[in-house]
Known about the structure:
Mean pLDDT: 81
Structural class: mainly alpha
Number of strands: 0
Order of helices and strands: HHH
Helix content: 55-70%
Radius of gyration: 29 Å
Amino acid sequence: MSAQEPNSVPPASNASLDPLIASVENYTRKEPTKAVSAAFGAGLILTLLPVGGIVRLLFIALRPLLLVLGFIKLYEEIESRRRQAATPTEPETDPS
């Protein structure tokens, strides 16, 4: 087993993010004060936005939505079985 160095960054799972990550790393090395300020500002904005309330509202609305979707799926299955039972099947003919 090879141990990772403490300062190494694990590889990104998505190759399309590599250029973005490299760009952010380069900018952070060139302008550390601006990078820390931008990170602080983004964190402050995310803290002030009601993101938690929106997520809670979505979870509250998700339960009845899943219940309704379950009933719709159950209704579709019942109708499918009813149609199959209503259509007469042709008896198999023996070719001999």
